[in-house]
Design goal:
CATH class: Alpha Beta
CATH superfamily: Ribosomal protein L7/L12, C-terminal domain/Adaptor protein ClpS
Helix content: 25-40%
Shape: elongated
CATH topology: Ribosomal Protein L30, Chain: A
Number of helices: 3
Distance between the termini: 50 Å
Strand order of the largest sheet: 2-1-3
CATH architecture: 2-Layer Sandwich
Number of domains: 1
Order of helices and strands: EHHEHE
């Protein structure tokens, strides 16, 4: 026979406010390449993230200038979904050499 210990449950004192834990935020980061046009980036960011054309164009300029841009900050689960949607968005029909979607990564927001 083996003895099993009962797990102890810590409860908040009566009347104490229970604060829900927040999930840590993650950035969705779009990575630059030379095979996608500004129009493609603006269109994709509008469709996938709901960014207006002006915001999306500024993000296209930033990714072109710096090599990366944060396009969303959200929960890990949604960040993974959005990264996957970028990867599945497809090639830019405006550029003949384009063979696929852009690349995106996720990383913890600081």
């Amino acid at each position: 026979m083996s003895a099993t210990a009962k797990p102890t449950v810590q409860r908040a004192p009566a009347g104490a406010a229970v604060r829900p834990r927040r999930q840590p935020p993650y950035h969705v980061i779009l990575i630059d390449d030379c095979d996608h046009s500004y129009d493609y980036v603006v269109e994709m960011l509008g469709r996938l993230f709901g960014h207006n054309p002006q915001t999306a164009f500024c993000m296209a300029e930033e990714v072109d200038a710096t090599g990366r841009v944060i396009v969303d900050t959200t929960t890990l689960e949604r960040a993974e979904l959005k990264r996957d949607q970028i990867h599945a968005y497809g090639a830019d029909w405006r550029i003949d050499r384009c063979r696929g979607s852009m690349t995106a990564t996720i990383e913890p927001a600081e």
